[in-house]
């Protein structure tokens, strides 16, 4: 069991604060064996393993919109993709954060129930090289979008919004997922 909250085991020198951007951490996700991404409300950081008195070096890499929820960050191949707090889709490779949502941003902005945006989740289908995001819609049903990763000369592409009300509510409800 971790002693994280026990001050006799886990002292304050074992914690790092990243106050430079003034925003809160939303998600932390490994990029590889030595580097992890830190997603904040409005910035993207990396933690890099270091063989010194300080086990990690932290660097601000970009200041794009952060993820709408921890579950909205998806690892796909060697990159992270996420649904942002502005309704756009972003790609982060550890160096730069890039908006890839294009024209779907306005559709997501008008469809996503922002009061329940913390319940947004995504997943990666490696066989079809697709990323699926699901959220509660303003209409009260579950909506989603599919992003197909580029493959050779085939560019990346989005599918239209889909409705999943009858599929997801039969097995699990949004409020059972937690926030």
Provide key terms for this protein.
5-stranded antiparallel sheet, 4-stranded antiparallel sheet, 179 residues, globular, mainly beta
Topology:
Elements: E1 25-30, E2 35-40, E3 44-49, E4 56-62, E5 73-76, E6 79-83, E7 89-92, E8 97-99, H1 104-111, E9 121-125, E10 130-136, E11 142-148, E12 157-158, E13 162-163, H2 165-168, H3 174-177
Antiparallel strand pairs: 1-2, 2-3, 3-4, 5-6, 6-7, 7-8, 9-10, 10-11, 11-12, 11-13
Q: Assign the structural class, choosing from mainly alpha, mainly beta, alpha/beta, alpha+beta, or little secondary structure.
A: mainly beta
**Overall 3D form:** globular
| β-strand number | 13
Query: What is the count of DSSP helices, taking H or I runs of 4+ residues?
Result: 3
Q: What does the largest sheet look like?
A: 5 strands, antiparallel
Q: Please tell me how large the radius of gyration is.
A: 18 Å
Q: What fraction strand?
A: 35-45%
* Element pattern in H and E: EEEEEEEEHEEEEEHH
User: First CA to last CA: what distance?
Assistant: 24 Å
> Roughly how much helix do the residues carry, as a percent range?
under 10%
Low-confidence stretches: 165-171
Mean pLDDT: 83
Description:
The protein has 179 residues and is mostly beta strands. The protein contains three helices and 13 strands. The protein has helices at 104-111, 165-168, 174-177, and strands at 25-30, 35-40, 44-49, 56-62, 73-76, 79-83, 89-92, 97-99, 121-125, 130-136, 142-148, 157-158, 162-163. Strands 9, 10, 11, 12 and 13 form a five-stranded antiparallel β-sheet that branches. It is globular and about 50 Å long. The relative contact order is 0.12. The model is unreliable at 165-171 (pLDDT under 50).
